DNA sequence: GTTGATTTTGAGCGATTGCTCAAGTTAAAA
DNA sequence: TTTTAACTTGAGCAATCGCTCAAAATCAAC
């Protein structure tokens, strides 16, 4: 053995993730990244291979973090729907001024990478698909718990949730509509229960 | 007088708009634009001032085009809601494979420009606000026609429409979910009528 | 045909991009 | 203490970026 790695991969990826989430892939320069994660080019490229490699790990980390966040809200809630409700309110209202962006990083990624054969486009699709599977499991639980009737399948509920959530986050990516968020989120969950 | 301008500003802006819509602002190079609109740098910069200036005109043109499209669907429909329904189906289903992106250019713009004081961020907000005003007028009509009850204001209907539409377009920005579009759009308009 | 205001052209500038790699630093093993 | 493999550093490369401007081309007016 010899010299040990000085940086903690987890926290570096988290910092990079925040910057990529805020500025997008193309608008984030490698010098921006160097400053944000406090590493020199050589170290970055030996650890992650390329800017694209670092983005890849960042987006995967983002997906994991969302899941972890949801899990945390679920464990403090009495039902799946209440947990999701609290999560949505947290994301849209409480973190409005401290989050890198109001818009989900997965959605931003899917929107940014236009070429259908590009690696990062595929990545964004895969992460979104993975998240949809996770969400579907949650709605399966909700159905089994009797929180929702089974007029829709769990997958259909998950799709509906994603459309609503994405739409709302997009709408609230602007100033001075904060007081609208609460009632519109309320409306969203009322609709889910009435589907 | 002397030499006349050789390009048609309208069609040039339309071409630029398509490219910006597809690739985003940062990923579109001035050389990409030169090729797309068939103009040399000097002409471009004397006509539009900068890449940002051309994008500015492109986004404004995009907004006008959407409105014109909606107007066209409205004039061929028996009611406001039917017209909007046809428009939504057209955008999400029929133009899926020929549109520069499944995602609305206004939404892409709003997502791409992170710095809250940047000109193009302000522009995206202004265009979105302008479009919301337009949509609100349409829903006012719909209410006056008795197509919708007035349990919500026209503005609230417009907001709901935008959230749904944006959410759906984001969801369908991926391959192999085409057969889902029709029923989900149906569901969207059923919900609007039942609000 | 000549003039002259106007537009088009494209070589190329300075800045920035993603990234490389030789040299320096570090610390476990001998 | 010496060795040596692993890690960090940062000057700087080749490519590309947004953009400029002097020269060439154009065409209405005379």
From TrEMBL, chains A, B:
Domain HTH tetR-type residue range list: 6-66
Superkingdom to which the source organism belongs: Bacteria
InterPro entries for this protein: Homeodomain-like_sf, HTH_TetR, Tet_transcr_reg_TetR-rel_C_sf
Record bears the keyword Disulfide bond: no
Keyword Cell membrane: no
DNA-binding region: 29-48
Key words, A-Z: DNA-binding, Transcription, Transcription regulation
Listed PANTHER family: REPRESSOR OF PUTATIVE XENOBIOTIC REDUCTASE TETR FAMILY-RELATED, TRANSCRIPTIONAL REGULATORY PROTEIN
The protein's name: TetR/AcrR family transcriptional regulator
The organism's taxonomic lineage, starting at the top: Bacteria, Pseudomonadati, Pseudomonadota, Gammaproteobacteria, Alteromonadales
């Amino acid at each position: 053995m010899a010299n040990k790695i000085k940086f903690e991969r987890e926290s570096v990826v988290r910092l990079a993730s925040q910057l990529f989430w805020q500025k997008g892939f193309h608008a984030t320069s490698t010098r921006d990244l160097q400053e944000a994660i406090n590493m020199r080019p050589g170290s970055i490229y030996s650890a992650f291979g390329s800017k694209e490699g670092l983005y890849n790990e960042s987006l995967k980390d983002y997906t994991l973090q969302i899941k972890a966040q949801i899990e945390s809200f679920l464990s403090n809630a009495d039902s799946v729907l209440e947990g999701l409700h609290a999560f949505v309110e947290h994301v849209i209202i409480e973190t409005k001024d401290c989050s890198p962006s109001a818009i989900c990083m997965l959605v931003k990624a899917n929107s940014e990478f236009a070429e259908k054969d590009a690696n990062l486009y595929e990545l964004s699709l895969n992460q979104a698909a993975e998240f949809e599977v996770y969400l579907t499991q949650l709605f399966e639980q909700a159905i089994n718990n009797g929180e929702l009737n089974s007029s829709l399948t769990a997958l259909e509920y998950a799709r509906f949730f994603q459309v609503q959530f994405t739409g709302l986050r997009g709408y609230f990516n602007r100033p001075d509509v904060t007081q609208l968020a609460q009632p519109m989120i309320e409306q969203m969950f009322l609709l889910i229960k009435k589907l």
